[in-house]
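input
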Amino acid sequence: MTIELLTALATFAFVTVITPGPNNLMLMTSGANFGFRRTVPHMIGIGLGFPTMVFLVGIGVMQVFDLWPLSYLILKIVSVAYLLYLAWKIANATPPKEAVGEGRPLTFVQSAAFQWVNPKAWSMALSAVTLYATGRDLVAVLWVAGIYVLVSSISTTGWTVLGQQLRRLLKSPVRLRAFNWIMAGLLVTTLIPVLFPAQ
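output
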C-alpha cells in the first residue's frame, strides 16, 4: 500500500469513526451514566470488534450478499429492531442514584457483537473494503482493519470522555433522564439513511 493510499485510508477511517453514529452516541451515553472506567470494556469491544468485522467482511462476508441478496434485507430488519430496542433501553435508563446496581454499561462481548447489527458499521466496513482493498487480498484487508484499530482508539476515548464531562451537568435525575431521551432520539435518527436511502 502506497503512502498516498495509506493517508487516504487513514483520513477516511478517522472521519467515519469520529462522526456521530450508534457506537459514538452509546459511548457518550455510557460515559455520562457510568463514567470512563466502567465504559472501558465497551470501548475495547468497539475498538477491536469493528476492525474484526472489517477483516471478515474483506475476506469473504461480502460474498454472502452477492450469493444470497435476501440476507442483506434480513440483516437490515434485525439491525433496525435491535437499534430501536437499544434506544428504548437508553431512554428508560434509571439514573444511578435511583438504581443501586441496576444499570450496567455494555460489556466487551456485547459491544463487539453489536457491530454486526450496526447499520453504520456495515456501511463503513463495506465502503472501506471496496475502496481500499479492492482486490480483497489478505495484506490489503489487514491494512484496512489495522488502521481502524488505531483510529477507533481515538474515537472511542474522545466520545467517552465527552460523556464523562457531561456528567457534571447531569447530576440531577431530571437532566440525566432528559439527556438519555435525547440520546435515544438521536440513536433512532441514525436509522433514517437505512430506512430511507438516498435515490
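quick obs: The CA atoms of residues 49 and 112 lie 4 Å apart.
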